[in-house]
Specification:
Mean pLDDT: 93
CATH class of the largest domain: Alpha Beta
CATH architecture of the largest domain: 3-Layer(aba) Sandwich
Structural class: alpha/beta
Order of helices and strands: EHHHHHEHEHEHEHE
Radius of gyration: 16 Å
Length: about 210
Amino acid sequence: MRYRLVLFDFDGTLADSFPFFAATFNGLAARHGFRTVDAADVATLRGMGPREIMAHVGMPAWKLPIVARDFIAAMRAGRSSIRLFGGIADVLVELDRRGVAIAVVSSNARDNVEAVLGPSAARVRHVECGMSMFGKAARIRKVLRASGVAAHEAISIGDQASDFECSRKAGVAFGAVAWGYATIESLAALGPDMRFIKVEDLLRIADDAAR
C-alpha cells in the first residue's frame, strides 16, 4: 500500500540551505558564545545528530531557541539566495498529481518556507512551522488529524536524526534523504523505513510497493 500523506522537513530536504547555514554558523557562534568551526570540521559534524553537534560546539539546550531565532532572521534577510534542490518542484507536482497529500513541517518560519517554495507552495496542503527541531512530533500529529490520514499511511521525510526521532514519536514512517545536512550513512544507522539517494527517488512514496 502506498503512502497517502508525506510530511517534508524543509531545510536540507526541500531547500538547499546548508551552504547558507555553514556561512552563517560562525557568526551565530561568536554572537552566542559557542565554538566556531572550520571547513575541516564540516564532514565530521555532518555525521553527528543535532544534540551531538550542540555538545561538540558547547551550545547548551536553553540557547537553541535564541540561536534558531537569529538563524531564521538571517535567512529572512538572505533567502533570495536559497533555492529548492534540483528536481524538487517536479517531484511535488507529480506526488500531488498521483493523489499524495503534501505537508511541510519545519522549525523554520512560515514566511521563509513559502518564499523559497515559490510556486511549489500551491502543491502543499498543510504547513506547520516555527517549532523546535525536537518538537515536530506534536505538529505531525496535528497534520494527521487535519488530513484525516492514519499514521500508518503517512511518511515523514527528513535529513537529520531529530527528524527520525520525531517521526517515531508521532508513529509515522521515516524516510531519509542523502542530500541534506546529515550524511546518509549516519541516517541509515538509525533504521529509516525508506532511503532516497536521488531527488527523483521520492516518487517511490506514491508506488504501491513503497513498503
